[in-house]
Amino acid sequence: xxxxxxxxxxxxxxxxxxxxxxxxxxxxxxxxxxxxxxxxxxxxxxxxxxxxxxxxxxxxxxxxxxxxxxxxxxxxxxxxxxxxxxxxxxxxxxxxxxxxxxxxxxxxxxxxxxxxxxxxxxxxxxxxxxxxxxxxxxxxxxxxxxxxxxxxxxxxxxxxxxxxxxxxxxxxxxxxxxxxxxxxxxxxxxxxxxxxxxxxxxxxxxxxxxxxxxxxxxxxxxxxxxxxxxxxxxxxxxxxxxxxxxxxxxxxx
Length: 253
What we know:
Elements: H1 2-12, H2 15-28, H3 32-49, H4 52-62, E1 75-81, E2 85-88, E3 93-96, H5 101-112, E4 115-121, H6 134-144, E5 152-155, H7 161-174, E6 181-186, H8 190-199, E7 204-209, H9 220-223, H10 228-250
Parallel strand pairs: 1-4, 1-6, 4-5, 6-7
Antiparallel strand pairs: 2-3
Helix pairs in contact: 1-10, 2-3, 4-10, 7-8
């Protein structure tokens, strides 16, 4: 139930939904003064959340900063969180999303000798395709590009960040991995993820990947012009803020 409610809440807490609701309401409202107020509110909401500069500032304050290689030690494992691919059964092809940077960074750290094993945690986070498990697909991909199978660990039943942490612990214990692990996830998600893993007693060092924030850009297109990408990216940030608060209330983080 918690899993389903989180998906519904994610839809309701998005600027695109708010803008659409306000503009549609302005068409249905009969009172001219109220119609004008609702319409203007919809337009202002659109410009506020389609501003790339404001989004970048919000992301910069929330995302976990990146880590220099020189600040890393060596770790028994790098834990990579799922939510980075889908599977095209017709062509037997894995299709990767933006979050794949988590996996690619883990491969690089493995090649550099920073991590000795890669633990991928993630089943299906989809209501529509609950049987599409990520972990077996990722393990297949990594072995095909030359990572030895004995250095790959996986968990394929977790559906959210809380379950990622809970289900990862017995795998680490079974493989006698008890020291600090690198936790690799997207910068915007890493704050909640690290809190969940520590709550379950797993000692992790956050390693931020595919961050949205970057150097400040003081250009007209970034300061004033609306961006559809910014409008939709706010959904990610709102989802994360709400998820973090709910996890705190639930005692997951």
